[in-house]
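Example 3.2
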Amino acid sequence: MADFQSPLGLAYRPGDHGNAAGGVGVTIHERTDISLIQVTAWSDAIPTVLTAIGSATGVIIQNKPGNGRVAGEKTVFGFAPGRFMVVGATPDLEQRLRAAISPDLGTVVALTHGRTVIRIRGTHVEWVLAKLFAIDFSEHAFPIGAGRATLHHDIHTLIQRIDSETFDLYVFRTFARSFWLTLGRAAEEVGYRVK
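Structure, written as tokens:
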């Protein structure tokens, strides 16, 4: 089996960058060794599909726009009507979802090799992300576990809040290097650390 290679290439430079002399405002790293699965439910099967996702992952969410939940390394969030991102550190996640969700309920699509996941964390995370996206990142508007689908210029991004100071950003691999560099420029003001 082929080894996974990051699309970030030489742009991934560990260490402190930007205005880090006074402290690091955010840390940024690429998440690897996780499975990303998109589940799309047919409109009349959304409650059944959410139950199936819960059975396969142990993570149960309600059918509300942008609703999601974080349970350790497992997360689920809705980003469009009937569309859910399911993330886990287990390699059999896709098979478990396929076993639970038949084609008459919806579709299960593996996106692990099609997306890059960037985790950004720190005391200035909302400030940095607000420079790139026209979203209210405050916790009352974007609660823990919630997900959003948005754009930075033409780069489609799914965003999930993991905790009060942490977000995961899901971008297409073909745009990952460009987006990584843009994120770094947005974080220069507060100083950032690449782990």
